[in-house]
Amino acid sequence: MGKNIAETQQIFLFCDGGSCQKAGSEEVVRNVRAYLRNSGQWDSTHTIKTRCNGRCEDAPTCIVQPNYWYKDLNPQKGLEIIKSHIENQEPVTEYLLYQDEWSEIKSDKEREAFTPKPFSIKIDPEFGECRITRGFASDQYTYPLFLYLSENSPKSSLILSGQIPISFNEIKNVNYSQKYTLELELESEAIELIIAPIDQKNQELVKKRIAVVEYFEQLDTLKKGVRMKNKFGEDIGLIWLEDHAWQYCLEVQLKGIKLETV
Predict the structure, then answer these.
(1) Are 157 and 165 in contact (CB under 8 A)?
(2) Is 158 exposed, middle or buried (0-12, 13-18, 19+ CB in 10 A)?
(3) Strands 45-50 and 10-15
(4) Residue ranges of the alpha helices (H) in the chain?
(5) For residues 138 and 142, what is the distance between their CA atoms, to the nearest angstrom?
(6) Surface-to-core class of residue 80, CB atoms within 10 Å of its CB (0-12 exposed, 13-18 middle, 19+ buried)
(7) pLDDT score, position 50
């Protein structure tokens, strides 16, 4: 039988993403759960191991409802946080990354966020003179891109290396249920694209993974496209876009970047 959540008074969400695991999150959770079991507070307190919470630089992290974010955890800090919230209904301020009404987070490890650069005009060996910029190659962008095109842009087309063009209206389903593989389901076959981080020791998959995404507009034809490459700069595929799909890319994939060039 699962835990009776109707009796739960406190909920703690411990990040169990890759960075937090490497930083020792499992030991933190085990220590906290042992304390709850032995102190008789197991039934009234619920601990959840989540996937990535999006603060890898502050690993290990924990969220306490309603909105207390903790950073740089270790087993001792974990117990202090648990006890303070359960016994005193108060956060441990010195360990906080963020709480409601703060105007900014408190982290000395903040990474500079990647933002797309303005388009630059270049002579591309394949497409001639183009406006071009690099976008995000994360699966958090690649999957939504393919999903949007399959649902909203039937005349956009995909060309994989050495294959004939595929219109997005031929794609029956965009499935991202596997660990790092995006599956495009056609009438009689499925196309697999590697879009998530993988073990770098597997060179075969490394060569197949989309690691670079470029957005470009040909200046002579005004045709717009997305070119996908692996980490070695080798082409994986190309998408030719309808105009409204290009606008989506500017607003969503490139976070509102303007077409001005540098």
Answers:
(1) yes
(2) buried
(3) parallel
(4) 18-22, 25-38, 75-83, 139-152, 203-208, 243-248
(5) 6
(6) middle
(7) 94
